[in-house]
Amino acid sequence: MLNPKSKNIVFIGFMGVGKGTIARALIKKTKRMGLDTDDLIESMENRKIKEIFESDGEAYFRKLEKKTAKWLEKNVKNAVISTGGGFFKVANLEKIGTVVYLKSSFEGILKRLQEHENAELKLAKRPLLADLDRAQALFDERASLYEAKADII
Ligand code: S3P
Fold it and tell me: I need a surface site. Which of 10, 18, 60, 129 has the fewest CB within 10 A?
């Protein structure tokens, strides 16, 4: 039901919801290739997301996401792709593959992050989670947008 073999499976959703975790489980099960957009951007730039935000700002990071999206559309098939929490806004998302939105409440996400053995690291590497009120506002703003972009929720 998910999709024909040639199509990618693309996980979208808020920071910390478990896109990487679920993607890794699916990669193991389906033996597909796995890619992560944040990892691709870090390799392309040879620096961490946090540093990109700090040195060049969010707008620059969003440009890198668009570039990554175009590259994925053109070059990648049969893969499981996990994405950064804001990647869903790229214009060609549906052309990359079947879009699966991992849905959770904001409280559920925080609980998941706080209970993680590397909780501090998980929070520290995400600049947009530094201020929890702002993160909650971002979550509220995005919740329905994620659903609108999803083939499967
Ligand atoms: C972002 C989410 C992060 C990362 C960047 C911006 C966002 O990825 O791409 O910090 O806009 O929600 P994760 O969803 O993997 O934390």
Answer: 60
